[in-house]
Amino acid sequence: MPPLDCCDDPQPTWKSRREQDRLADVFLCAGCGHVHTTESHLAPIFFPEPGRCLNCGGALEPDTLIEGEPSPRGFQCERCGLHDKDSMELHRTLADQVVPDSTLLDAALVALEQGRLVLALKLASARVREDYTDTEARAIRLQTLEAVGYGESAAREAWRWAQDKDAPDVVWTILADLEASTGNMEGALKALQRGLRRTPNDREMWLEYAEMLLAVDERQTALDAAAHGLPTESLRPRALAVITEVAERFVRGEEGEKIESAVAIAGDFALTHPPLVYLRAKAAAQREQLEQAIHWLERTLQLVPDHEEARAALERIKPEEKKRWLFW
User: Fold this and answer.
1) What is the pTM of this model?
2) Pair 230, 236: CB distance under 8 Å
3) Low-confidence residues of the chain: pLDDT under 70
4) Which strand (E) or helix (H) includes residue 84?
5) How far apart are CA 327 and CA 282, in angstroms?
6) Contact residues for 193 (Cβ-Cβ < 8 A; gap 6+)
7) Of 221, 253, 259, 227, whose CA–CA distance to 240 is shortest?
8) Residue 12: half-sphere exposure toward Cβ, Cα within 13 Å
9) At the N or C end, where does the chain have fewer CB atoms within 10 A?
């Protein structure tokens, strides 16, 4: 797209929205709101299975020539009027407009990165029609379907996918995210529980489960799930984030004594992860354990010398004082 000159501070972005019976990708300025380009599309909300129009999701019906012979263009959509073969050609043309001579999947990825969600949905759906086993294309289709306002439809489609005997393990995480996006946390947790029964050694799925549990404040179960991520270096920051958040909630709720459950899960990282070390100082203060509070404050400063809150707390300590002067 060319540079915008609609205002003094142009902020180009793509937004997707409904326009009458279509969905549209709109290129506009986030600064002044001026719309520069609108790309309006019919979208395949229904899964692009045989019998459904790839262009709009309508039902395909047999089409005949005047002589009564079957049409070489295939079945015709009763809604948009496109023939099945023409519909696929339309999507290949759209893909070439995004990235010349690209595959449908590559073009869908570029459209997604650009923020053209409706176009990405159409291109990913076309790729799914080509190959139902393309996991990445199906994931993009579900992601964009949810993003343009069809989260429940995307979740139902993902549940059907999960029932396939050859469905990839990642379908459970995709499904959980879709259920969570619609506010169905029970469905999200159910999806991950079923996925973990199928792949109990999937540490990343355990972390997804821990984060979902944290979202519904299931603290101890979240800690147990987060423990599975600690041995893997790439997953450890997320695991420690869950553990630290649980500890923070205990401290905020004046339940400092319960922090030990988080400390036990964290193991040696409870000595080296600065946010958790600092929370141990606050929990000790709540329990009126002055020496322990000082110990963990000093340990925090060893790890993070410029930790202002820990330093200020230490400076406020007087030998005869015992509790909440540390943190107010």
Assistant:
1) 0.82
2) yes
3) 1-3, 63-73, 318-328
4) helix 84-98
5) 7
6) 209
7) 227
8) 12
9) C
